[in-house]
Amino acid sequence: MIHDxxxxxxxxxxxxxxxxxxxxxxxxxxxxxxxxxxxFVQLNERIKxxxxxxxxxxxxxxxxxxxxxxxxxxxxxxxxxxxxxxxxYQVQVVERTSNTVRIADLSSKVGRSIAIEGEVSQIxxxxxxxxxxxxDESGTQNVAAFVEAGVRAFPEVELGNIVRVIGEVxxxxxxxxxxxxxxxxxxxxxxxxxxxRIEIALDARAEPENILPLVKSDVLDSxxxxxxxxxxxxxxxxxxxxxxxxxxxxxxDGICSAVAIEQAVVSLIKESGGDYDADYFLFKRAPSKAPxxxxxxxxRDLDFSLKDHARYGQKMxxxxxxxxxxxxxxxxxxxxxxxxxxxxxxxDHHHPDATIDKYLVAHVNPYHVGGDFGITAGMLGTEVARxxxxxxxxxIRHLPAIAAVGDRSEAPERALYLALISDxxxxxxxxxxxxxxxxxxxxxxFNDGREIVKDILNLLGMPExxxxxxxxxxxxxxxxxxxxxxxxxxxxxxxxxxNDAHLFLIDVEIHAHKFTFPPPGKTSGExxxxxxRQNVGKPVVTIGFGPDFAVLRSxxxxxxxxxxxxxxxxxxxxxxxxxxxxxxxGSIKFVExxxxxxxxxxxxxxxEAPVQT
Length: 613
Ligand code: MN
Hints:
Elements: E1 7-12, E2 26-35, E3 38-42, E4 48-52, E5 65-73, E6 79-84, E7 89-94, E8 113-125, E9 130-135, E10 140-145, E11 162-172, E12 175-185, H1 188-206, H2 218-239, E13 244-249, H3 252-271, H4 278-281, E14 283-288, H5 295-312, E15 318-322, H6 331-339, E16 344-347, E17 362-364, H7 377-388, H8 393-396, H9 399-406, H10 412-420, H11 427-444, H12 450-456, H13 463-488, E18 493-496, E19 502-507, H14 520-534, E20 540-545, E21 549-555, H15 561-571, E22 578-581, E23 585-589, H16 595-608
Helix pairs in contact: 1-2, 2-7, 3-7, 3-9, 5-6, 7-9, 9-10, 9-11, 11-13
Bound molecules: manganese (II) ion.
């Protein structure tokens, strides 16, 4: 029997949180446990309060049903309760009044108390509050929680948890921040529900726009599904505040590919919120010294990532390799990375070895679809960047042309990309920029030169400074190249092979300046270019060698350098042979004492290669 004058008692349903609790009202509860100063009563699975012993009306044991009145909700979220004894009452169920806000909508809620639900993507302890980075389907938000200076708030909340945050939206240093009253790690059905909701929405949000390549190209068209897959993985990493490490070959093509992606990723990080300097600590670009991802690289990347994970509660990163990564030479590093389950994406145009695909989550390579190295990494990187964030297209559309001339592409796409930007950049201007990049990277050594490189590539909207800088770098580079050529060209030793290939040998160790620009690989390339001009219409192979290495370049001789290196490795025991590269441009390493044997065997293989007439 319910009478009109019955006292109303409320029961919180499972979904309710602190914001559904009202001071003064009476709720049904269950005794959870006891302390010397009173007993804890749960109002639902998640919300509990304290009945001070002075407010207890009877003796209880755990799991007893009790009625409690909410005396006070403290600023820290603690609830003070008072036991009630009521004989006749009516129960009304409180459904959750959802005040959950999407992160993207927080800017209109400044000064208001709200709730957000999402995944914890970083937990950073400062000397003041603990900063939780929370990601939902719409964005990234920092949440500050404070117990005591430098003390970890809500220690039960861990990286990767799905949480509900209740707090106030504030502006701090021009940035939105939530000051949390309470952070609850969700569990069971509730966790699954939120996780599924976020997952579905993130998956849709990460899906790249369906846009065509900048130029008409069968190879690029065929690569589109894989490029979209890559773009989606990268977009998802950005939306979930996963750090990204971008490693690239340290030449003009590698830099162009990496910078295109850098522009897309950094702008997307800025759009999706988070810290004002998130684009610096969530994104790192670094050149690889070797023409592959060597053990030194993975060791550094792992070292920093593990420290950031331990110190700043960051997720482990997504690693992207451009203009590197497709070959067996990278395998040793992938093996190390796989111990930590690091996901790898490769965007490369080196001849791929199928054995490495098991280490990669995605792999864009023109050889997979019948193309070749003429589709440069800079072209691929730029097309992927447009899929990651189409907004950056106007500032990066000249990068493929620079990459094409930098890597001496002879694919039809080279002319198309050059034509695309011919109103702003001549072919010579592109060559100058490519040379300036190579020269500057030499002085940058292991550094990425993030801002200088932007000037060289004219990404900052300061064309005069760009022109000044490129002019100076080109002059510097050319002077040093001329010095190098005048020293080494007289020492070139010519030979004509049985297949009529014109072979030229140059010992760059003793007939070129060392530890300076141009380094041995580029020195050999410059020598080769000059010899090609002197031997028009003839097949030309140039070998620049040092004590324990040789760099090969060819025109009109159809070699397969990676295969030759593998064969030599098997045929010359004790040669210590390794290496690779492109089919007709590459390098080989060996032990010094075996140099003449290895070089002669190499030359024999070159003499057996077919020549183009
Ligand atoms: Mn390249």
